[in-house]
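Weekly puzzle thread! Below is a chain. First person to post its structure in token form gets bragging rights.
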Amino acid sequence: MRLAATNVRFLERDPATSTWRPEWLPETEAPIASVRRIEFRNHGRGALHGFGTGAVVGGIAGFAVGMSVPWSCDKDCRGMFVPLTTLGGALGFGLIGAAIGAAIGAPTTIEFDDAPSR
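Winning reply:
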């Protein structure tokens, strides 16, 4: 997208093509006043959402594994391994979730309203 003084030039994805191999329609020009919203994917925010989701799921899975595995040591041994498996699961799944979220991206829409008349 390129903004000029009175118009905006942009590329639009051809809706007839697949999402994985998009083809683009020819560059289009429109007056700035006709732009009502801009939609795009924010990959940084998608990575944060993915990390958060993955960390929660991984933390729960790590806690469940830490509680269910019969550790072959003293009875107080579980108190050391459960936090480690919880942290390891949260970190591992969080990083996987961040990678997936960054690849997909979070849908973002910026909407423009006309300024009120005075």
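Puzzle host: Confirmed. Bonus trivia for everyone else. The chain has a mean pLDDT of 83.
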